[in-house]
Design brief:
alpha/beta
Length: about 350
């Protein structure tokens, strides 16, 4: 009888988890998430941050999992009942929780910088980011609005988009971290078309062959045929929608945002294109911060993130909810190349 040949199980992707601002809840939610065996069954998690800070977070949260400090990512051993941490040793030992500081901003920057290098060199397959604080980042001299723009800079990517996902809704943004008046000025048909294209492409790669995409208007009631606004829908959005429809894609709009989000929430659309930050973030956050995941679309690397901030008001108390980080890790695994 001939021997039966069995194919080896596919290797788990290694995901770089950046610690974020050490004064925030990042260290705590990382330790709580990695204490769950199902997370280690999902991927090989490699934390990029500060081992001492993670140990302090473990003591605060009651997590007994040991933290292994690594000087090089090649030293990581999976699977192992321990947190593997590429130890950057940049966080001051006495840095207090819950306070904005240049030191915290510098740690957050260095974590993202190192993670980007690891992905580009093929050591890890995706990045999952814990939250940073923009004020602290700026205080450290890194003038980026957030993770999205920072990663675009580090990878030499000229333009990316922010996508928020939850079990019931996906939203991609045309503009993000700028004021509302500046956002309306920035919106133009070429930008809208490129954002729709990035959203369409990522859904197709995820297995949705003919995604149904709804595009938000800027004004209430989509301008009501010129009654509201100054004709922004006709000038800034409609040409982009028509260009995408000419490609054979199922793209509809501009549609009143309140109606569109209701329809998308019940499953009529695979993706909503929001024109500005709060238009897209509001509905996702109403559905629950613990379910929201931030995906940066257009980078040469896969990057997912929790859909909440550093929560300085509860940092250091051990009560932070780790569920959004776990969902972000799941999304990173789904999108990571094998």
């Amino acid at each position: 009888m001939s021997a039966v040949t069995r194919s080896a199980a596919p290797a788990l992707p290694t995901i770089a988890i950046t610690m974020g601002d050490p004064a925030g809840i990042g260290p705590e939610i990382i330790m709580k998430a990695l204490a769950r065996p199902d997370v280690h069954a999902l991927c090989n998690p490699l934390v990029v941050g500060d081992a001492a800070r993670l140990r302090r977070a473990a003591a605060i949260t009651g997590v007994t999992l040991p933290v292994v400090a690594l000087s090089d990512a090649s030293e990581a051993r999976f699977p192992q009942q321990a947190v593997q941490c590429l130890d950057l040793k940049v966080t001051p030992v006495d840095l207090p929780f819950g306070q904005v500081s240049a030191a915290g901003g510098e740690t957050a920057y260095r974590c993202v910088e190192k993670a980007a290098q690891l992905v580009q060199s093929g050591v890890v397959q995706a990045i999952c980011t814990a939250p940073l604080n923009k004020e602290a980042l700026h205080a450290a001299g890194h003038k980026f609005p957030g993770h999205t723009e920072l990663l675009a800079h580090l990878t030499g990517t000229p333009e990316v988009s922010m996508m928020l996902t939850s079990p019931k809704l996906r939203v991609i943004h045309v503009t993000t971290h700028i004021g509302l008046l500046d956002a309306i000025e920035k919106i133009e048909p070429g930008l809208v078309e490129r954002v729709i294209t990035r959203g369409h492409d990522v859904l197709v790669k995820a297995g949705i062959t003919t995604p149904k995409i709804g595009v938000c208007a800027i004004n209430p009631h989509a301008g009501e045929n010129g009654l509201f606004g100054r004709g922004e829908e006709a000038v800034k959005i409609t040409p982009a929608v028509e260009a995408c429809q000419a490609k054979g894609w199922d793209v509809r709009g501009p549609l009143p945002a309140d109606t569109l989000f209701f329809l998308a929430g019940r499953g009529d659309y695979d993706l909503v294109v929001a024109m500005y930050h709060d238009q897209g973030h509001g509905p996702i956050k109403v559905l629950g911060l613990e379910a929201g995941v931030n995906v940066t679309v257009g980078l040469p690397v896969i990057r997912t993130s929790v859909d909440h901030g550093t929560a300085f008001d509860i940092a250091g108390t051990g009560v932070a909810d780790e569920r959004s980080l776990i969902e972000a890790l799941r999304q990173a695994v789904d999108l990571a190349p094998r």
